[in-house]
Each structure stands twice: as C-alpha cells, then as structure tokens.
Amino acid sequence: MIRTVKTAFNASNEDIDYLFFSNRTSAEVWNYCLVVAKEYSLANDGKWINKILLRRYLRRSFL
Q: Do 62 and 54 contact (CB within 8 A), yes or no?
C-alpha cells in the first residue's frame, strides 16, 4: 500500500506549469515502459524485461 500526505504549498504560476509538465513527462515515460515491457513479455514467452534491457530501449527516447 502506498501512503500519501497532501501538503499545501505556495508557488508561482510558472512553477505550477513546470510541475504539471514534469508530471505529464513522467506519465509518458511510465506508459512507454509498460508498452516495452508488454512487447518484450509477448516476444519472450512471458518473461519479464530486466532493468538493463529496459534502459537500452529507453535510451535517448526522452531528451
């Protein structure tokens, strides 16, 4: 179980926009990782991809 705590903070509109941009980028990377893992699993009889191969697939994809 993941536990979270909501915390109030003050930030400029520029900082808020940057936080939302960072959140969207991390979501894109996560979704791409899931696609790569699924393709790998289907191609390799259900085996999980290891972190070294995943890094190779992701290298230079999100610069």
A: no
